[in-house]
Amino acid sequence: MKDGYGREIEYLRLSVTPRCNLRCIYCAPEGCSKPDELLSDSDIVHIGRAAAKAGIRYIKITGGEPLMRSGCAGIIRRLKSVCGIDEVTLTTNGTLLPQYAEEIIAAGTDRVNISLDTADASQYAAITGFDMLGNVEKGIDMLCGADIPVRLNCVLLGGINDNSFYGLLKFPETKKIDLRFIELMPVGHGREFSFMSSDTVYNAISRIYPLYPSEYSGNGPAVYFESSRLTGRIGFISAISHRFCKSCNRLRITADGTLKPCLSMSCGTDLKPYLSDEDELYKLLKKAVHNKPLMHCFGSCSDEAETAAMNTIGG
Fold it and tell me: Which residue, among 116, 112, 66, has the nearest Cα to 87 in the 3D structure?
């Protein structure tokens, strides 16, 4: 389904919990309060069916940390059975993968994105509040061993992980893993940190590994590059320095059922009163697509700008 600006909207980020077991300094350093009433498993499947009818082909399960929700693998399995949905993928911090990897693999998860801002154990603990890097690396090995596509997402934190991103290159060096660098978005606690452009990282990496544009595009805003000296790809998600709104293809739904057409804006539609009526959900999704804004409002003083913590709006 096309929005008012001709963009094909086919990607839904669907949060299943705002809870997280980490305390990342740019997301939820104070921890997570008790979540409001969450969508039930059946609610999520109803939304998935309505979304497919509205033209959504790709669903990303997010959080918080989605593996903290009991039965997350079951949700993935049920969404995989929805006619019209081509892919169901997962974004996780990776710390619970040693416990749940087998379940999400068996559920048919098409790909796993893992948030990992550094490969240095002490710095990882400083950023996340916990010494759990070993869990993440074990989870990565489990997924790769099962031939599940893996993407690593590194958020660029000016003055914090400026140089430590070099350590993450060990993953695409030896494994078919995509390593993506994401410009920090000024949402919630993200406003408290210095901006670091993805161009800085691109220039630094290209001095070590000659990069050339990849034909691979993925299903989202990342721009990918390859190198003859790397097994995996390098990607950049540059929402600030290279605003990609003209090609945005997504909607978001929070864990408590708020439909958001843009991450940067606080406005949204409460879906909870309509969860038993898939036709009405379809109409609301269609309306959200039609009213999707032309571009984000990051860096502006708009009254509509999102102020909530990233974990509560699905990342």
Answer: 112
